[in-house]
Design a protein that fits this description.
- With about 575 residues, this protein is an alpha/beta fold.
- It has three domains: about 1-20 and about 150-255, 3-Layer(bba) Sandwich (Glucose Oxidase, domain 1); about 35-145, Enzyme I, Chain A, domain 2, CATH 1.10.274; about 260-570, TIM Barrel.
- The protein has 23 helices and 16 strands.
- The protein has helices at about 35-65, 75-85, 85-100, 100-120, 125-145, 165-170, 190-200, 210-215, 235-255, 280-290, 300-305, 310-325, 360-365, 370-380, 400-415, 435-440, 440-445, 455-460, 480-495, 515-520, 530-540, 545-555, 560-570, and strands at about 1-5, 5-10, 10-20, 160, 180-185, 205, 220-225, 230, 270-275, 295-300, 330-335, 385-390, 425-430, 450-455, 500-505, 525-530.
- α15 links the parallel β12 (about 385-390) and β13 (about 425-430).
- α1 runs antiparallel to α3.
- The chain starts with a strand and ends with a helix.
- About 45% of the residues are buried.
- The model has no long low-confidence stretch (mean pLDDT about 90).
- It binds phosphoenolpyruvate and magnesium ion.
- Magnesium ion binds near residues 456 and 457.
- Magnesium ion binds near residues 454 and 456.
Length: about 575
Amino acid sequence: MLRGIGTSKGIGMGQALLIVDQDVEIRVEKIPDTEIDAEIQRFLDAKEQFIKDTEKMITDLSVQLGEQEKTALVLKNQIYLIKDVELNDGVENLIRAQKICAEAALNDTCELYINIFSQMDNETMNQRVVDIVDMKSRMIRILQGIQDVDLSHIEPGTVIVAKELHPSMTALMDTSHIAGIIAEKGGDTSHAAILARALEIPAVLSVKNVCDKVHNGESVIVDGEYGEVFINPIQKTIEIYEKKRTVFLEHREELKKYIDKNTETADGARVMLAANIGNAEDAAKAMEAGAEGIGLFRTEFLFMNGISMPTEEQQFEAYRKVAVLCKEKPVIIRTLDIGGDKDIPYMGLTKETNPFLGYRAIRFCLDRVDVFTVQLRALLRASAYGTIRIMFPMITSLQEIISVKKMIRDICQNLDQNGIDYDKNIQIGIMIETPAAAVMADVFAREVNFFSIGTNDLTQYMMAVDRGNENVSYLYSTLNPAVLRMIRYIIQCGHEHGISVGMCGEAAGDSRMLPLLLAFGLDEFSVTASKVLDTRKSIADWTMKDAKDVTAHVMKLCTDKEISNYLSDCIMNK
Ligand code: PEP
Ligand code: MG
């Protein structure tokens, strides 16, 4: 059995088809002065062809995807990339200055970006690299007149095995015949993972050397939940996995019944169930899954996707799109949260010894008022089109809250003077994700309209444990009594001051945490779109009385291990 990262749940069984990536060779040819303009035109023609091909791929792929699954249309990123003004100027300048052919100029320009993005240890940035590499090699194939491999005729029950699945490869496949996907590279947010989830194809990525271990036509099983791959399994294993597949498919059908239901406990206590998103496509998916609002829109992805800062218009359009899509449902948009593990190359952040304790989120924004003002203006303008709420990350002091409120007041005044519409009663909230904010929750609650508990950071700061450091990950537990007491205190402070308290950290979707959060009185649970239905079903499994009894016992326990074991037993016996 081989292990990797399970990125799209389900059991896939079928015959392996190995896909070998074709490398393109780049010749650096010199261009005479008289042919420079023609060479630039050759690049522009290839670009037109590339856009046409990619748009066709997107259309073909859309037919296979549900309306809500447009997230998977990651190929759109490649169209943005090839249209990027800086990239185009770079290629043209190189052709003119160095008198080299379009292939070489494009290759050199792309390599520059690839270098910048690869140095960042961050999944989103790595994804940029995949996009640029895929775009570059397709462009070069167009320039050199090389045909793509035909992947449109795939036998039913095929398990795709590849080093890395590029977006354009997947777009060319007949995905209805794909039983599973295995690749040597890629993580949970890679294109292959996003597409596999959208098409409900089980997928395991980051499986070391799988291409050397499996041969074409061999029988394979993919367990997309546990990240396991079996090559030539024995009959007994096949039988076990056939049963697992049936159970999985039945569970998926069962969850669909919860799409239009209220989120409430078995004895009728209502709570709000929202979703965490990174863009409009996620929002569409969340609405489709029956989310009652957006509890966290992480705007940093908007800034991380491009190679320069998004303009006020671009931001306004992105926020407006989500607000309109969610109709009257509330959309909490968090202002830029960079720094920590999220870098944006063009912002020129310096390397820090302790980035999680450094120049990040609200600290960066209050320092770079130029960047912050643009975002706040875009948010306020978009608020005229739906129910937008603005949320600030990484708050540690009252002064920060006072400063952001003053900035908002000033911007509103300016919008008024210019007759620009916005929501005059817009709600302002903060993330409670630092111990300082948690301890001061009673004071901060007087200043804002809502809290949202960011357990991902709150746990790391409470436990003094870097959330990305494997060596100390045993300490990173939201079930630690210290963290639980803090969460209870934050909710209590919010309620004493009459404001709503939500949670948008991963803990909101942890089934073990649910009884505790219900008993503490959490108002809003915000989870990833794929967990909305699971969470609604789990909440429906509890009565408030049971949740309170379980919580009373948990709050007497002193270690996260005891708490975790006790809660797991409670869930098992439900
Ligand atoms: C959190 O810290 O819990 C949170 C939701 O924010 P992020 O994971 O984006 O830091
Ligand atoms: Mg956070």
